[in-house]
Amino acid sequence: MKPILSQEYLKSLLHYVPETGVLRWKVKRSNIEVGNAAGAERGSGGYIQVQIDGRLYRAHRIIWKMMTGSEPPRFLDHINMIKNDNRWCNIRAATKSQNQANTGLRSDNISGFKGVSRYSQGEASGNPWQASIQIDGKSRGLGHFPTKEEAHAAYMAEAKKLFGDFARSA
Q1: Residue 80 gets which letter from DSSP?
Q2: How far apart are CA 113 and CA 116, in angstroms?
């Protein structure tokens, strides 16, 4: 990750309202007026990015530096999963595993439940669903179950144990 500019410099350029998550320019810059919202969603990621001195920075990383004075950790999590919601109450430090735990269903999920997939050999045994969880980039099986709801309950129990408030059911 590229280092963020100094807190002092950022605060000289930008005003941040923690309750709304909006950054506004404090200084006129080329075609930008004082008071204009800083940044825009760029690319497909959904994050707001702000250009300062020719470099792009994600707004939530700027905000972390402005609010704490410290360099943002590698992973910052948007609690409600809305990547352009930069209210201070919605941003928290996370590990990679915590950040990935706070995601919704994958687009290729056919069970409708996070952490649950079809178990091909399970039809004969009466346990056609399996639960698994990702920890530090590795998948760990949690067992085979007769219903996808039971498999999901096993996933959620383990997710709550491992990830606490970062665990998300869907």
Answers
A1: T
A2: 6
Q: Please state the pTM of the whole predicted model.
A: 0.84
Specify which residues 133 forms β-bridges with. Answer: 140
SS3 164: helix
Helices (H) and strands (E) in the chain, counts: 5, 10
**Share in percent of the chain as helix, strand, coil (round to 5):** 30, 30, 45
Task: Return d(Cα 66, Cα 50) in angstroms, integer.
Answer: 14
Helix (H) or strand (E) holding 138: strand 138-145
Residue-by-residue DSSP string for 58-92: EHHHHHHHHHHSSPPPSEEEETTS-TT---GGGEE
97 within 8 A of 134, measured Cβ to Cβ: yes
Handedness of CA 99, 103, 107, 111 (dihedral sign): positive
pLDDT of residue 122: 63
pLDDT in tens, 87-123: 999 999 999 999 988 988 988 998 999 999 998 776 6
Mean pLDDT of all residues belonging to the chain: 92
In CATH terms, 100-166 corresponds, of 3.40.630, 2.20.25, 3.30.730, 3.40.1000, to: 3.30.730
